[in-house]
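Pilot study result, target chain (70 residues):
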Amino acid sequence: MKKKMLITLAVTAIGGFLFTSCNKDYDCVCKLNGVETYRYSVRAKTKNSAEDDCNQKQSTLGTTYQCYIE
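Predicted structure:
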């Protein structure tokens, strides 16, 4: 009984690892007039979705920053 339970638990754990989404941390760097003003981490599944999130930070209170994924 214990052996069957252990096998079931192992299969469940492996299945969980296979079906979880893998997110990666990307650095979003924002510059104003060529000077880095701030940097923050973006967690996303793809570089494109990280770039989308980073690009949303380009305009704050009328100031336009140049933000990009590094």
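One observation from the pilot: The chain is about 40% helix and 40% strand. A full batch analysis is planned for the follow-on phase.
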